[in-house]
Protein: HD domain-containing protein
Amino acid sequence: MSSTTAPFPTFPVSQITMPSDHLFTSAYAFVKEHCSRATLNHCLRSVAFSLILFRKFPPLATNADIDKDAVVLSLLMHDMGWATSSSSLTSNEKRFEVDGADIARNFIRTETGGGTGTSNGGKWDRHRLQLMWDAIALHTTPSIAHHKEPEVLATQLSIMAEFFGPHLDAAVPGCSITVDEYKEVLAVWPRLGFKEEMRQTLCGFCRDKPETTLDNFVSEYGRIYGLDGKGGERDGFVKLCDENNIVRRLEGGLAALETYEN
Structure:
């Protein structure tokens, strides 16, 4: 079994078939070109878990209208904000999720002739592109993603499956990946040090564009692991986070406005 070349392998235990249409394989080549092997494997595992959930998680399996093409493409490209081979793809001022959503949307527009082309699932119109953008931009925010369109929910749940595997149903009852399914997917696309790479990547965002991390979970990596993933400059980053604490900023803003109330 190979994780670097298409066609993709079969999954007799999971009973899934990876997409093979032109748009998906083009996106696969794009992610492979610009992201590390560990990140690519992470994204492919997330796609595989979505196909498992489409098959047996009732809210997804019973929804005949769900746009599966949009989901699998969102999952395949959801971490393009981690692109390592071309700094021109990512920004210095956006959260990585927003970078990823922008990159994916631009890629689809280019591949489909401005968003007007078709894939197995139909035309990539403005609504469909926005659906994909939302799915990627919100993939780290389940408290919002779980209450949006089913495609956004499916994307977020599939990424949760990547992090929780057979333990997913403890967090989302009825949303299950079996041990055998998990092992089958992992055997095809091993982690390759993904946990350590993710830590380094997120701590790097705290170092290189800290303003994009202060209102979200990424800052917690800097608070715990410092700016180098090993504790370096942790105290300074913790101070920066405290100075930009949202409660203090909101309370301070209201206090400053009190002068206009009399």
Q: What stands out?
A: The first strand starts at residue 118 and ends at 119. The mean pLDDT is 93.
